[in-house]
Amino acid sequence: MVGAAFVARLVLAAALAVPTAATAQSRVAFPSSDAALTGGAPTMLAGLVWTPPGLGPFPAMVMAHGCSGLWGRDGAPSARHRDWAERFHRLGYVVLHVDSFRPRGVEATCGTPTRERVARATRERPHDVVAALAWLRA
Length: 138
Known about the structure:
single chain, alpha+beta, 5 helices, four-stranded mixed β-sheet, Rossmann fold
């Protein structure tokens, strides 16, 4: 017969061994596919990836931020972006959240004129998503 203290220690050890959403998150860097737009060298992008525990394979998704960018004022991903990533992570997805702004020296575009914001979104960001998908495949 197994004692209650042994079972409690076993449950605690198992809980500590399973990564949580916060510990499964890591920062990554990869080049955008925007070399034709930049005139040579691609923009080096930053991102956060949430990886489920286990060997996989896992379904994967790329998340792109809105006009306020990925990061909050505290330097961490904003609560909204973290919440969505963690929801999909808990469902077993690898989630790559790509930062299209800070690598280009942009904090946010919400206050910029609509034409400039639309141009940035249609010109640069699709290259970032394509590069993020390639990074996930690799």
